[in-house]
TrEMBL record:
PANTHER family: CMP_DCMP-TYPE DEAMINASE DOMAIN-CONTAINING PROTEIN, CYTOSINE DEAMINASE FAMILY MEMBER. It comes from Aspergillus tamarii. This is Cytidine deaminase-like protein. Keywords: Signal. One of its GO terms (molecular function) is tRNA-specific adenosine-34 deaminase activity.
């Protein structure tokens, strides 16, 4: 797990089971990272879509610090046709809609909703591209937590704009807000979602198996689970 704060980047290497970052134990971080993975099945229709980028946005500033889920998001490029709808952008849009819903839990005004992001933590199962990392900084999130790194994605064949989140964050010091960056959280569980797409020998994520010529993964059917 890596934790970075602005303006000084600090590399911390501890055993994940005992690490507490920003006052929150690893077990809590793991819970919410798994929640970001689960968003895939809920919003994309498959637990193992080709573009398995999932996000969960959480408020850890509530009473016990465990966290309150505000919204989830997944990559919707193919569903919607909007090429900017990466998981993080979709989640920011979903959260905004939930925060400002006049009949919802929060009923915030637009300006109140914008300010609310300063209390929120964004969990994404893969390091954000520079577009999403910039959006996270513009939103002013309190924390940004990712699993699989961009380096891993590139190494396994994913096309990426190869600028790390840390570089984006270091270039955003003029912004008024500060966002704590925590990387490599639960990467041992997020990596399998991203390692099969360009490697037919790599197994599908849990609950899924190869289909067709091995270039896709699909969920087990009920019969196959018996
Ligand atoms: Zn992105």
């Amino acid at each position: 797990m890596r934790l970075f704060t602005i303006p000084i980047a600090v590399l911390l290497c501890f055993f994940q089971v005992v690490l507490t970052t920003n006052g929150i134990p690893f077990s809590t971080r793991a819970y919410w990272m798994r929640r970001a993975n689960q968003a895939l099945g809920e919003l994309s229709g498959s637990p193992c879509p080709f573009a398995p980028f999932g996000t969960a946005v959480v408020n850890h500033t509530d009473t016990d610090g465990f966290g309150d889920l505000i919204c989830i998001g997944v990559n919707q490029n193919r569903q919607i046709g909007n090429p900017s709808l990466h998981g993080e952008i979709a989640a920011i849009a979903n959260c905004t809609a939930i925060l400002t819903d006049p009949y919802g839990r929060f009923r915030l005004t637009a300006s109140e909703a914008q300010a609310a992001f300063a209390d929120l933590t964004l969990y994404t199962n893969a390091e954000s591209c520079p577009m999403c990392a910039s959006a996270i900084r513009w939103a002013g999130f309190k924390e940004y937590v990712y699993g699989t790194s961009i380096d891993t994605l590139v190494r396994k064949g994913w096309s990426q704009i190869h600028i790390s989140s840390l570089e984006v964050f270091q270039a955003s010091l003029d912004l008024m807000s500060r966002t704590v960056l925590i990387g490599d959280v639960l990467a041992n569980e997020t990596d399998p979602y991203f390692l099969w797409q360009f490697d037919p020998t790599y197994p599908c994520p849990d609950g899924c198996l190869h289909s067709g010529n091995g270039t896709r993964c699909r969920a087990f059917t009920r019969d196959e689970l018996r």
